[in-house]
Design brief:
The protein contains 12 helices and 43 strands. The protein is an alpha+beta fold. A hairpin with a 2-residue loop joins strand 10 and strand 11.
Length: 685
């Protein structure tokens, strides 16, 4: 029999018209598809781990050799090869079309068809340079499917069908290219190139501006939970969240000296407000890239950590990837190719406070260098948690054409940056014996980041109710994209004025929302009186140091708002056993802590696009107040008459499948327990 296919263990290969296509069983109920016009595939597995195939995958080729089927558990891939003379060209042409099915014989999606005389290509390669192409993979999918995931984009759209996304990182945008369909599949675009994803009703399209190959992974499952579990198996599970990660975290831009930080921690203890962690923000260093405390302001780090530990408070320290040209490490890092380089012009990435260049964590030597510096100057002084800020990384100008990494150009590999940045610290902490006690706050993520202890926060978002609303969908979509650890700046980041009644209202509402996030964290660049009301900081010689924002502690906003903080921190403490269960499910089964209503109620059509409510785990429905001046809001309770919802404020019980009007005074949030599972919270809200 003459056939168009080559069969290898667990893999089906097709060649024709200069292209090589490989379809391979890759984990439970999953396949990986790669295609290229180069002589071989890129050997780097950017996010995917080595597959744990059980040998049950089967490949069958038709008698005529033109059709093949690869079956791996619940997923089936059909490959249809054709060849025929193209009269307008005068020669024989070859193509292979893929379609993806579940084990019930239901079509999940298929590659975009030729379209008769249109002669369209589902896999298209436009030459860029060398072995790189502008590559596009196009598919036909059900126009009625619902889509969720893709990471963090600042919008309040829940169902992503009909949306388009830049595949690139920016401050407050974490592009994680894993999307889950209501049709019962998950799709990972396994390519860190800068590009675009479009989920049109008539066409789904993934595009990379510059890449060596098309590379994607598909998994099939009967539920969202099954799909998320299989994705975690394929790309890595989040580690265990340490106990000190589950309570209240205090931060501001910025505590600028040791005594100020300790006074705040003492203030929490003297007021009997529980505190798990406090953060030293940026510019505690002499220069960007020095990776150490400035002695004048932080004279005794070991003593500071010891006092915090005696109060039961962990310390987290900010690290930036930028390296100033004035840093004591700049010359050595530049000599060893540990810095990002420019394709043209001055080799500078940003000018914030001082001219600087980003370090290059795609270089293993650079990762080791930076970790060793941080180990000597932070870890060995008692610091056990890091805030890996600027993880996109941030550029003064997001001109992705102009930056080059150890692993390739920014256009080809740029989206891997936050994963590599977090990896360097995680592996160092593992080597130092901290397994099971690692959580590092970071401003960005890519596929696989979850396995490196990455707690992603949503970046420098605004202090408005519109921004608050967007954080709900950000949290849901990050969870669906396989990043279960997520948080935000409580109150938003930019210039909340602490003596403004409008901002106090926003902060109270955001505090309630943060209570039901994986991590409850207070942070922001606050101001007093006006948006420019900051604290000037200089050293003993009168030289400029980065300024500090206004106070941002619970008691900084007056008795009414302090009472709100106290109430919700108490709720967070009471909820620890439940939160611990949710983190265990994230670690063991890849389950998100924040879930859209659709996750638990996939058959309730009303919830497919509800963007201003969510579930914290399977049991607690939260409906944040996202409008200024509101003292009530409508809440849809999913399910049917067999589902009950108990108002955690007064114990009132409602049946599912209805919309109610819920009162919402400034110090309360509508929250409901599913089927009586209230976790001891009734009356605390």
């Amino acid at each position: 029999m003459t056939t168009s296919f080559i069969i290898e263990p667990n893999a089906l290969i097709w060649t024709g018209d200069g292209e090589t296509l490989r379809v391979e069983a890759w984990g439970k109920n999953s396949v990986r598809v790669r295609a290229t016009r180069n002589r071989s595939f890129d050997p780097v597995d950017w996010a995917l781990l080595e597959p744990q195939n059980d040998g049950s995958a089967s490949i069958v080729v038709s008698e005529d050799g033109e059709h093949a089927t690869l079956t791996n558990g619940d997923i089936i891939v059909k490959a249809d090869a054709t060849h025929a003379p193209l009269l307008s060209a005068g020669y024989e042409t070859f193509r292979c079309d893929l379609s993806f099915w579940n084990n019930k014989g239901e079509l999940l999606f298929r590659e975009y068809p030729q379209g008769g005389s249109l002669l369209l290509k589902a896999r298209d390669y436009a030459p860029v340079s060398g072995e790189s192409f502008k590559a596009t993979a196009a598919f036909s999918a059900d126009p009625k499917e619902r889509l969720y995931g893709m990471g963090e984009y600042q919008q309040d759209v829940l169902d992503l069908k009909g949306s388009t996304f830049e595949l690139a990182h920016r401050n407050s945008q974490a592009s994680v290219p894993f999307v889950v369909s209501s049709k019962g599949y998950g799709f990972l675009w396994h390519n860190p190139a800068i590009g675009r994803a479009t989920f049109g009703r008539n066409r789904t399209e993934w595009a990379a501006q510059s890449t060596d190959q098309i590379d994607y992974w598909v998994t099939a499952g009967d539920s969202y939970a099954q799909i998320e579990s299989q994705y975690a198996d394929a790309t890595g599970h989040a580690p265990q969240m340490p106990e000190w990660g589950m309570g209240f975290w205090q931060c501001k831009l910025r505590y600028w000296n040791q005594e100020q930080l300790l006074d705040v921690a003492r203030g929490f203890k003297s007021r009997n407000i529980p505190l798990d962690l406090i953060v030293i923000d940026f510019f505690h260093w002499p220069h960007l890239g020095d990776y150490k405390f400035e002695n004048e302001f932080w004279p005794d780090p070991e003593g500071m950590v010891a006092e915090l530990n005696s109060m039961g408070v962990k310390l987290m320290v900010s690290v930036w990837p930028q390296v100033s040209v004035a840093s004591e490490n700049f010359v050595e890092m530049k000599r060893n190719n540990y810095l990002v380089s420019a394709e043209a012009g001055l080799n500078l990435d940003m000018m914030f406070e001082e001219p600087c260049v980003n370090y290059d964590p795609t270089n293993p030597g650079a990762r080791k260098f930076v970790w060793n510096k941080c180990k000597a100057n932070y870890w060995d002084k008692g610091v056990r948690a890091f805030w890996l800020d600027e993880a996109e990384p941030e550029y003064g100008v997001y001109d992705f054409r102009n930056y080059r990494y150890h692993m390739g150009s920014d256009l080809n590999v740029g989206n891997i940056y936050p994963q590599a940045y977090n990896r360097g610290f995680y592996e160092g902490q593992i080597e130092a014996g901290m397994e099971g006690e690692i959580v590092n706050l970071t401003r960005c993520a890519w596929a696989g980041s979850q396995r490196y202890g990455s707690l992603v926060w949503s970046g420098d978002v605004g202090s408005t109710f519109a921004d608050l609303r967007s954080q709900i969908t950000c949290a849901i979509h990050m969870g669906m994209a396989g990043i279960p650890w997520f948080t935000t700046d409580m109150g938003g980041f930019h210039d909340g004025v602490i003596d403004s009644d409008d901002f106090k209202e926003l902060l109270a509402r955001w505090c309630a929302f943060s209570t039901f996030l994986p991590v409850m964290r207070n942070h922001g660049d606050r101001s007093l009186g006006t948006p420019t009301g900051k604290e000037t900081v200089t050293n003993a010689a009168g030289e400029h140091r980065s300024p500090s924002g206004a106070d941002n502690e619970p008691w900084s906003y007056g008795p009414e708002i302090e009472a709100v903080f106290r109430k919700y921190i108490a709720v967070r403490e009471a909820m620890r056993p439940y939160t611990r269960e949710l983190f265990a499910a994230a670690h063991e089964q890849g389950q998100p802590l924040v879930r859209g209503l659709f996750y638990e109620f996939p058959h309730d059509e009303h919830v497919a696009d509800i963007a201003d409510e969510y579930l914290f785990g399977p049991d607690i429905l939260v409906a944040p107040v996202v409008e200024a001046g509101a003292d009530s809001r409508d809440v849809y309770l999913p399910g049917d008459a067999s589902t009950t919802w108990t108002d955690l404020r007064d114990g009132s019980v409602y049946s599912g499948g209805q919309t109610i009007s819920a009162a919402a005074a400034l110090d309360t949030v509508p929250a409901f327990a599913r089927d009586g599972r209230d976790h001891g919270l009734i009356g605390l809200l």
